[in-house]
Design goal:
alpha+beta; 5-stranded mixed β-sheet; 6 helices; 9 strands; about 10% strand; globular
């Protein structure tokens, strides 16, 4: 069970969330230009965005509250929703700290949108299918299939939720930094590395506490969304094999953002 340390303050610069790379020094995002590129990216092979606001869409989350750690073993939908909110809040505070260290303004994503049906959410006219989670730059949001995500949460564990949100949020950061690779697999493996860095750094800063088995959940969850071994690496939509994805995730987890080729 991933534990989240909550602070009573909602100041995104406060608390223990987000690793600093030396006072007065420029961090790993230094020199990268923030750009508003149109980019569709996902953890499991799809892409998307909503054509209009809809009930249930979650705006950018506030920082977690109170200085406690939630650590139970239930797998209810309510716990899943809390984990999504916690993961979003920790990711936003982490990336806000990195951008501040590099002297750049940070803009959180606009919202997170759960959906239940094929075509319920779309991005630029492209409808999002079931069994997916995506980031869409045109609306600056993350969307996920509730049934698929909750099933993965129950099968793999709550650590998967933090990885999934971290991967999609990494795509939002790539857009903000103007990163645009020639091949999908490059974008996706970098996002896995960045998700690992956000989680590893948050554990080291004690923003997150891992329970026994959580590292195995990360490994199992990342491997579960790997491409079929026969998928050509250069194919549009390729994300990387299970081995490639877990390798990049743990490079970021253990070595932070310097392993993620951010410049």
């Amino acid at each position: 069970m991933v534990g989240v340390h909550r602070s009573a303050s909602t100041d995104v610069w406060g608390g223990t969330v987000g690793v600093r790379f030396g006072r007065g020094a420029r961090g790993p995002l230094a020199g990268l230009v923030v750009a508003a590129l149109v980019s569709l990216a996902c953890a499991g092979g799809g892409l998307a965005e909503p054509e209009a606001e809809r009930p249930g869409a979650k705006p950018s989350a506030a920082a977690p509250e109170a200085s406690t750690t939630r650590a139970d073993s239930t797998t209810s939908v309510a716990e899943f929703e809390q984990d999504v909110a916690d993961a979003q809040a920790v990711a936003e505070r982490y990336w806000a700290a990195q951008f501040k260290e590099s002297g750049q303004p940070f803009r959180p994503i606009r919202r997170i949108i759960p959906y239940q049906r094929d075509g319920e959410v779309s991005c630029g006219g492209q409808r999002l299918p079931r069994n997916n989670a995506v980031y869409c730059s045109q609306g600056d949001f993350i969307a996920y299939d509730v049934a698929w995500s909750v099933a993965a949460f129950r099968q793999v564990g709550d650590a998967f939720v933090f990885y999934l949100l971290g991967h999609e949020y990494a795509h939002a950061i790539q857009v903000r930094l103007g990163i645009n690779y020639s091949f999908t697999i490059q974008q996706e493996l970098q996002a896995d590395c960045m998700a690992g860095a956000y989680l590893g750094d948050s554990v080291r800063s004690r923003a997150l506490t891992l329970a026994e088995g959580d590292l195995d959940e990360f490994r199992e969850g990342v491997a579960a969304v790997g491409d079929d071994p026969d998928q050509p690496w250069f194919a549009e939509g390729a994300h990387g094999t299970a081995e490639q994805r877990t390798d990049m995730f743990f490079r970021g987890y253990e070595g932070s953002l310097k392993e993620c080729d951010l410049g």
